[in-house]
Amino acid sequence: MKALFLFFLLPAILAMTENISFADDLVFVKGGTFKMGSPESENWRGDDETQHEVKVGDFYISRYEVTQAEYESLMNNNPSNFKGDMLPVENVSWLDAVKYCNARSRQENLTPVYTISGNKVTWNTDADGYRLPTEAEWEYACRAGTTTPFNTENSISANEANYYGHYPYEIEENYFSQGNLTTKPGIYRGETLKVGSFKPNKLGLYDMHGNVAEWCWDIYAPYDLTAVENPVGPSEGTRRVNRGGAWNDFAKNMRSAYRAATPQENNSFNLGFRLARGAVKIGTVSTIAEQKKSGSNSKMLIAYFSWSGNTQGIAEEIRKQTGADIFEIEPEKPYSESYNTVLREAQRDQRRQARPKIKNHVRNFEQYDVIFLGYPNWWASIPMPIASFLEEYDFSGKKIIPFCSHGGGRFGQTLTAIAKLAPDASIMKGLSVHYSGGSQLINDIRNWLAENNIQL
Length: 456
Known about the structure:
By secondary structure, the protein is α/β, with parallel strands linked by helices. 23% of the residues lie in helices and 18% in strands. It has helices spanning 2-18, 68-75, 94-107, 135-143, 310-322, 339-352, 384-392, 414-421, 441-451; strands spanning 26-29, 32-36, 52-56, 59-62, 114-117, 120-123, 130-131, 213-219, 236-237, 240-243, 260-262, 271-272, 276-278, 285-289, 300-304, 325-328, 370-376, 399-406, 426-427, 431-434. The strands form five sheets. Strands 15, 16, 17, 18, 19 and 20 form a six-stranded parallel beta sheet that branches. A hairpin with a 2-residue loop joins strand 5 and strand 6. Helix 5 (310-322) crosses helix 9.
């Protein structure tokens, strides 16, 4: 008990004594050893969350996510979807975030941490400037000594974080009978909130769960279980890690151990970052993360799974505008036509990470350079027939352009699911459509195709 008390007391003491020259919102985190990842008993854990013991050194991390006012004052632009000085900046890529770190360092007469040359980024840990936290640092700081799925030590509520509050932890298997839920459904705000709107965790850090997901330094890959001291991820890969979930995420995807992955060039309306600074030296770290080069867009395929017909309608409009070939992803065993039943079937398949057999197959898949991939957002992720499709074919060097129909959660974590299942494909700008899209669908698709440089 005494050691635990000192763990929480030390940051406050050291922040006052050692952090005087740092930005006011930086918190000193005393390093230590913790279990990274999730136990096998944790509900809705991913296969990439293998629990293992990790030691991190001392570091500093910001109390708050970087705000739009902070970002715009240095970068002279504000890419955010939701506008407000004290809202977290979002719609920033990983590369945008590291460039901001260097700019902030120069502004405060600190030595920039990163050297950026195209897709190659080198981290000089001798430098005293700002940086992104490593994935291990982020989880250690988020947990703040806890071992539960959330740092609240209970099933997090919409009064404790900004997320899709209609879907608290374990709602999937309790949707029709909620008596067993620790936390009942709450409000869904549908937008970001001012940073620091909820109580901080035990280290004084705000919004580690929800509001916007946060970029980390690491390239995404299965954990290297031999890297147990200040791990920094692999040196090569195609995706970067982001953590914590966002305003449009279900609670299961805000767990302390949940790992999202996104190409470092991509941005999103629910993805931002917070700053860190080093207190120990890890050694120079160099990484290369890049989208695989794709073909010339000479041949395009629209592949989609649809249950209600909404996604099918979007797919057919894309075909009208592009002339692309079209393929319906149909499981051998169809899902129920009953809405209530299909909700149960969908969460069952997701829980099992099932791979339903597909009825038909794409002939000469290798001829296609661009794959428009369509699906409904089911329980904040892809329907499992999409996973079957992604694992059946070789997507190396191809462009995947996602589109989804949804009832309010936009993409949820579907883009992360696709990025993990097709690591050698380029993931392009997606289109989320509210149900069938209405009268704006034709123009929305036309604009989206232009954003992806698809020639009509």
